[in-house]
Specification:
Chain A: This is Acetolactate synthase small subunit. The complex is a heterodimer of chains A (about 170) and B (about 575). Chain A has about 170 residues and is of the alpha+beta class. Chain A has helices spanning about 20-30, 60-70, 100-115, 135-145; strands spanning about 5-15, 35-45, 50-60, 75-80, 90-100, 120, 125-135, 150-155, 160. Chain A has four helices and nine strands. Chain B starts with a strand and ends with a helix. Classes of the chains: A alpha+beta (about 170), B alpha/beta (about 575). The interface of A and B includes residues 19, 69 and 72 of A. The structure holds thiamine diphosphate and magnesium ion.
């Protein structure tokens, strides 16, 4: 049981001050923890608070360590393990550039429609699609586009929030 | 209170005064000249000019550990700050409260590769508990007070404040400490009572219990040490401690089993291995202590009290974790133990003590007593006798002499013993001794040293002479990096690669060149004589060169990767099969 690797999404509320991201990233590299994705932006202008969403994996003991180590950083306000704390929603945003003409171009557009991706840029030979969805949906879409002239994909990584009326 | 305009440098000094700082250890340079100028114009804070910034930090550690106060350091930008890095990490590893102020190039030059610019907050981020770069003079007072608060609260540690030169010159507003409340940092001091009650129930049913205590008890203050002693006496259980925790429980007490771990006593390590209930208070299951993790106290239930939640379940999974200050938890433990009228299982305890006494009778610290050569253990035994009953403090360097000092010098009180535990920094002992001596001018302060470690910060004799700090540098000179040689014997076929101390100075002449007293013992008969002479020197440092057996090794020893019951007692235990392959990679 101990050795099972679990994937966890962790939300961290921090003071938006210089170096805070370096502290978080340094913690992960210094202690050899995994980061599968990390997103960060200020969520409270008045108090200068930023929300970091981290996806990480490790044994239960390691995940508990990660949370304790994060909590120990001085500018950290709160650490929430969204995976542990009940149902949550997770979303990623991707920009996907596809180049091609003819049948491939039409097929790309058709698939984009099915995935509810938006066209945010178009030329005669290319599209940039904007897609929001779970990591798996974005993976699927990018995988399909790879066969239809994918040039580039840019992804935000996961942002997440607990379901229901209470915070986090 | 009306708003006061002060320069940044004045704000620094005022904040230090308001934080109760009386001594600051430092070294000047271009980027801190305004602060040095402000120091010049006041008399409340004494500045101690060291000879190297690393030593400033170790001296502040010695000051902090011997007083329980926050140690304070001042260094310049660039090389000043990078020289301080080892000291900062040392303090982080051993949870020593420090505030280190560093100068920085003016804000408009930051990032331009300016002269003596270093990304000090970047470099020290993993070496400090927290650090700050202050770009606005109006944030300086708040940041200074926060730095002291963070350094001393929760699990203590070093905090660095990087101050650009233009901020030191700029005018700003001062605010006193009372007006500063930290936004986020509120470490849990009081434990969850339900957990303590659970622990008490477990403790009361123990048949083979042991207390395993660490630096957390010392850091929690003298009251915590008193409470520990009281609780241990109430239960009648045996107690051992880590290198960092020595002195929190009186070593003269019969319940004391000595230090545990790699060079710990047989009785302490076997009691740990065989215990059924382990009460860890303020120790962190460090690899020097646990040995082979899978065979660490295999049949035991474990209680772990720590102020740092990240220490719990890090290396060893425990049954009852308690987050809180050691003193606060012990107070609750004693109260609940009394209220519930608990009493240890006397029959079981008697049997357990029988076993423990059996291990103790093995007399594991025994060594080959001889008149032919000075054994390092003998020199320390004589030092112990000479210091008995006297007000004294001991620091050490790192190596065999450090472990022998831990084994042979007993402490009945906390804050008397200072050694670099977590980082194992050679060169720690002399500056730490100076810091302790300046905090306790009338006490005897001895740095138990090795000839190799001494050379790492020997420039600090200059500091000791300048401030008339009569530290005693007690060198157990075995002409080797003894601990390295010992490992080479154990693991590398006795190929002594670069572990011989070639080209040593004449330590007596070295002392004399500085105006200190130099003493040497080369025969057993001379040992008492030089110790007596050394103790008579009270106005200047004293270097004592004890020519000890160059071949002696430190035992007992649990080789890396071995379990507590696989202890080596002495040279007769074959080193060749001592360490399994997987243990060899361990340090
Ligand atoms: C700064 C630093 N460099 C290297 C080491 C590795 N090291 C540990 S003990 C030791 C030898 C110490 O020799 P000495 O001071 O003579 O002490 P002895 O072991 O002989 O008592 C060395 C090199 C260290 N701990 N610290
Ligand atoms: Mg030596």
């Amino acid at each position: 049981m101990e050795e099972k690797i679990e994937k966890h999404t962790i939300a961290v509320l921090v003071d938006n001050e210089p170096g805070v991201l370096a502290r978080v990233i340094g913690l992960f590299s210094g202690r050899g923890y995994n980061i599968e994705s990390l997103t960060v932006a200020e969520v409270n202008n008045a108090d200068h608070l930023s929300r970091i969403t981290l996806v990480t994996s490790g044994t239960r003991m390691v995940v508990e360590q990660i949370k304790a180590q994060l909590d120990r950083l001085v500018p950290v306000h709160k650490v929430h393990d969204l995976t542990d704390e009940g149902p949550s929603v997770e979303r990623e945003l991707a920009l996907v550039k596809v180049a091609g003409t003819g049948e491939r171009r039409i097929e790309a557009l058709r698939l984009a429609d099915i995935f509810k991706a938006k066209v945010v840029d178009a030329t005669l030979t290319s599209f940039v699609f904007e897609l929001t969805g779970t990591t798996a949906e974005v993976d699927d879409f990018v995988g399909l586009m790879a066969q239809l002239g994918l040039v580039e994909a840019s992804r935000t990584g996961v942002v997440a929030m607990s379901k229901g009326p209470t915070g986090f | 209170m009306p708003e006061q305009k002060l320069t940044g440098a004045q704000i620094v000094i005022k904040a230090l005064k308001d934080q109760g700082v009386d001594i600051i250890f430092g070294y000047p340079g271009g980027a801190v000249l305004p602060i040095y100028d402000a120091i010049f114009q006041q008399n409340d804070i004494k500045h101690i000019l060291v000879r190297h910034e690393q030593a400033a930090v170790h001296a502040a550690e010695g000051y902090a550990r011997s007083t329980g106060k926050v140690g304070c350091v001042l260094v310049t930008s660039g090389p000043g700050a990078t020289n301080a890095v080892t000291g900062l990490l040392d303090a982080l590893c051993d949870s020593i409260p420090l505030v280190c102020l560093s100068g920085q190039v003016p804000t408009h030059l930051i990032g331009n590769d300016a002269f003596q610019e270093a990304d000090t907050t970047g470099i020290t981020r993993p070496c400090t508990k927290h650090n700050y770069l202050v770009k606005d003079v109006n944030q300086l007072a708040r940041t200074m007070h926060e730095a002291f608060y963070v350094a001393r609260s929760g699990r203590p540690g070093p905090v660095l404040v990087d101050i650009p030169k233009d901020v030191q010159f700029a005018d700003g507003t001062y605010i006193p400490p009372t007006e500063v409340k930290h936004k986020t940092y509120r470490p849990q001091v009081k434990p969850e009572i339900a957990r303590v009650e659970e622990a008490i129930e477990l403790i009361a049913t123990a048949k083979r219990p042991i207390f395993y205590t660490g630096g957390g008890v010392v850091n929690a203050g003298p009251i915590a040490a008193k409470l520990l002693t009281q609780f241990v006496k109430m239960t009648g259980f045996p107690i051992t401690s880590t290198l960092m925790g020595l002195g929190a429980f009186p070593a003269s007490d019969p319940q004391w089993l000595g230090m545990l771990g790699m060079h710990g006593t047989y009785e302490a390590n076997l009691a740990m291995y065989n215990c059924d209930v382990m009460i860890n208070i303020g120790a962190r299951f460090d690899d020097r202590v646990t040995g082979k993790l899978s065979e660490f106290a295999p049949g035991s239930k474990k209680i772990h009290v720590d102020i740092d939640p990240s220490s719990i379940n890090k290396n060893v999974a425990v049954d009852i974790p308690i987050v809180g200050d050691a003193g606060a938890v012990l107070e609750d433990m004693i109260r609940i133990w009394k209220a519930r009228q608990k009493r240890a299982d006397q029959t079981a305890l008697k049997e357990w003590w029988g076993q423990v006494e059996g291990w103790r009778a093995r007399n594991c610290l025994n060594y080959n007593r001889t008149e032919a050569v000075i054994k390092p253990q003998y020199a320390l035994e004589r030092l112990r006798e000479a210091l008995r009953g006297k007000n004294h403090y001991v620091t050490t360097e790192v190596g065999q002499h450090q472990m022998w000092a831990a084994q042979f010098l007993p402490f009945d009180e906390p804050n008397r013993w200072m050694t670099s535990g977590g980082l194992g920094t050679m060169g720690y002992g002399l500056p730490a001794a100076i810091g302790a001596q300046l905090a306790h001018p009338d006490a005897i302060v001895v740095d138990v040293s090795g000839e190799a470690s001494f050379l790492m910060n020997m420039q600090e004799i200059g500091t000791a002479v300048q401030y008339r700090a009569p530290v005693k540098i007690f060198i157990l000179n075995n002409k080797y990096m003894g601990m390295v040689r010992q490992w080479q014997e154990l693991l590398h076929g006795s190929r002594y690669s670069n572990s011989y101390s070639e080209a040593l100075p004449d330590f007596v002449k070295l002392a004399e060149s500085w105006g200190c007293v130099g003493l040497r013992a080369t025969t057993v008969a001379e040992v008492d004589e030089v110790i007596e002479k050394m103790l008579a020197v009270t106005d200047r440092p004293c270097i004592i060169d004890i020519a000890v057996d160059p071949k002696e090794n430190c035992f007992p020893m649990i080789p890396g990767g071995k379990a507590h019951n696989e202890i080596l007692f002495g040279p007769e235990d074959s080193p060749s099969d001592a360490t399994p392959e997987d243990g060899m990679v361990l340090v």
